[in-house]
Structures are given as C-alpha cells and as structure tokens.
Design a protein that fits this description.
The N and C termini lie far apart (59 Å). The protein is of the alpha+beta class and 337 residues long. Helix 4 crosses helix 7. 47% of the residues are buried. The radius of gyration is 19 Å and the shape is globular. The protein has an eight-stranded mixed β-sheet with strand order 4-3-5-6-7-8-9-10, with helices on both faces. A five-stranded mixed β-sheet has the order 12-11-13-17-15, with helices on both faces. Strands 1-2 form a two-stranded antiparallel sheet. The protein contains seven helices and 17 strands.
Length: 337
C-alpha cells in the first residue's frame, strides 16, 4: 500500500486555492514540523525537567506549565521562520504577536492558536493537543494588527489540531473535508491515515464535566438527565466519557460519535473556552465532518469576535445529539431569566 505523507497531500490539494500560490501549503507544513518537535518533547516529558509549572500565570488566570511555554515558543518560531504569517494570537500571550520582518513582508495570513490544550493533564500522562486557526489578513501590509483577528469563524481558511497521545495525529480542514494524518516515528513523517473523516450523525457518548452540574443552566441539567434515562428506542442511557483534555474528548467523539458540552456556569457566565483559537477551529473541523457546533443558541462560526480572548459556551459533535441538546436549551431558557 502506497503511503501518502502530509507534504505530498498538501501539494496535491494546492489547486483548491488558486489565490494562495503555495503560501498556505508552506504554512501547513510549518505547523506539521513544529508539531513533530512538540510531540518529541511531550513523549519524553517524564525524563526531563520540562514537567510542572513555571510559577507564572497566563492571561486566562491559569498556571503556566513548562511544556506550555515550550510549545508556544516552538510554534511562534516556526511561524516567524516560515514567512507566511504577519501576526500570531496565542492563548499564552496577552496581546497579538505582530511579525514585521523582511521574510514576512508579503505574508498573507494570521494564525490563532492554543499551543497546548489540556496542559493540566501533562503531569499525569493524559493526551494533550495543539489547536490552530488560519485567516487571511485584512490589513494591507506590514505587521498584522488586532483587526486581522476580528473575523467570524466562517472566514477561516484552514483549521486543525494535533493530538499528542498514544500516537501523534494531525487533523485539519481547508473547507474541503477533514483529513487525519498519523506520525510514523520510523520515518518522521505524518502519513494519511484517516482520509475524508466523517463523524457519525448520532452517538452514545456525552462529554461534560459533571462536577460542575449544580452550576449548569437548566437546559444542560435536563439534557444530562435525558442522557442517563433508559430508553431502548434511542439507545439510552448514553455513556459519560470526559477526559478533561478538550482535544482528546473531541477527537474521540469525532471518530466514534458523541457530543461535547462546555456550558456556561455560575462561575463562568460567558463560558470558559475561547472563541477565536479553540471553538472556531474545532467548529470548522466538526462542521466539515458533518457535525454541528453551537453556543447553545447560535452557530459558533457566526458569532462576532470583539476581543482576543473572548469566551463562549460550546455544544459540539454529532448532529442529531447536538440538535436534541439545543432543543433542551430552547425549552428551558425561560428558567434562566
């Protein structure tokens, strides 16, 4: 069987973007290379002084893990060296990182990323991941600006994630379906392993942090109880599967079917996940795979972005499961008034 590498696949698909002239292809390859470097460090994290916290707190109020810092630095370095990006937005940085160098003077893209999602799980050997989102710049020239990132998710050119687990996988979309690549360590290449990924329309897994149950909206509470009821016609009760590493939970549900919910709580009335570099890219992937992504009321990718680290609730996954959850949110919305 002929193996198709990420690089070969990207070159084959370059004709999908006649306006790009190869820049997007190079940018995706840069992401793949940085992902390999981060995966190498993740896989040996227990052997070196890279586990644990730096003692600093990031803009989200979360303790910064050493590996977070390493991943952030690797991807930033890759984007600066590649010359295809004029600005970067990262979960780990308060503000955007403008790039105004000779090599990037004709850069057409900006990248938003969560360099290491699920990093609280690093020390206990649970899968973590990188999430990325690519937009065409709206500014005319020079370094990118904050306005380049104030675009709805519908304007994304490409999005994806890399999951560092029992195997390392890169999953991405350019709006022409979703494809998954598994890193073959023997040759050091991402190889096409999951072509044209489609998520099942239905599933029997729901993923939510039930430890916050008391603080959930009424609609979410009612939906969880619905998932737990016995009903042979709908294959209930469903299984509760929550790893606590967003990329890992969503990757599993993408493949096997299921719903991932990160709702508002009384502590986080606007939700906790970030719209720009977590929810929008994941929504783009799931929609391209046949799923649905909503904030409980509106399509995620149609939400306006007003600030870099804007938060939102998220209902994501198999279309039929998400529709039922949204019906519960609609039915019980008056209870929240």
């Amino acid at each position: 069987m002929k193996v198709k590498t990420l690089g070969q696949f990207i070159i084959e698909k370059q004709s999908d973007f006649p306006y790009a002239k190869g820049e997007l292809s190079r940018l995706l390859r840069d992401i793949g290379i940085a992902g390999k470097i981060v995966n190498r460090e993740v896989s040996k994290a227990g052997l070196v002084e890279i586990l644990g916290e730096t003692g600093e707190v990031n803009v989200q109020g979360e303790k910064v893990k050493k590996l977070d810092v390493f991943a952030n630095e690797q991807f930033i370095a890759a984007f600066k060296a590649g010359g295809e990006v004029c600005a970067i937005a990262s979960e780990e940085n308060d503000d955007i990182i403008p790039i105004d160098s000779e090599i990037s003077k004709n850069a057409k893209y900006v990248v938003a990323m969560d360099p290491l999602d699920g990093s609280s799980n690093i020390d206990v050997n649970v899968s973590v991941g990188t999430i990325f989102s690519i937009y065409r710049r709206t500014s005319l020239s020079g370094a990118g600006t904050i306005n380049d990132f104030m675009q709805r998710g519908t304007e994304q050119v490409a999005a994806g994630y890399i999951i560092y687990g029992s195997s390392c996988m890169l999953v991405y979309t350019t709006g022409k379906g979703v494809n998954g690549f598994t890193l073959d360590p023997s040759i050091g290449e991402f190889c096409l392993s999951h072509p044209n990924m489609r998520t099942p329309q239905n599933g029997n897994v729901y993923s939510v942090n039930e430890g916050n149950y008391l603080h959930f909206p009424t609609g979410v509470k009612k939906y969880i109880k619905y998932c737990q009821e016995e009903d042979k016609a709908t294959n209930r009760p469903f299984s509760s599967r929550y790893i606590g590493s967003g990329v890992a939970d969503i990757h599993r549900n993408l493949i096997t079917g299921g719903i991932y919910i990160y709702p508002t709580t009384t502590k986080s009335p606007k939700g906790k996940l970030r719209l720009l570099y977590e929810c929008n890219p994941l929504a783009f992937i799931l929609e391209q795979a046949g799923g649905i992504a909503s904030n409980g009321n509106k399509r995620i990718m149609e939400l306006d972005i007003t600030e870099l680290h804007q938060r939102t609730p998220l209902f994501l996954g198999s279309s039929e499961m998400v529709k039922v959850a949204l019906d519960f949110m609609e039915k019980y919305k008056e209870a929240e008034v």
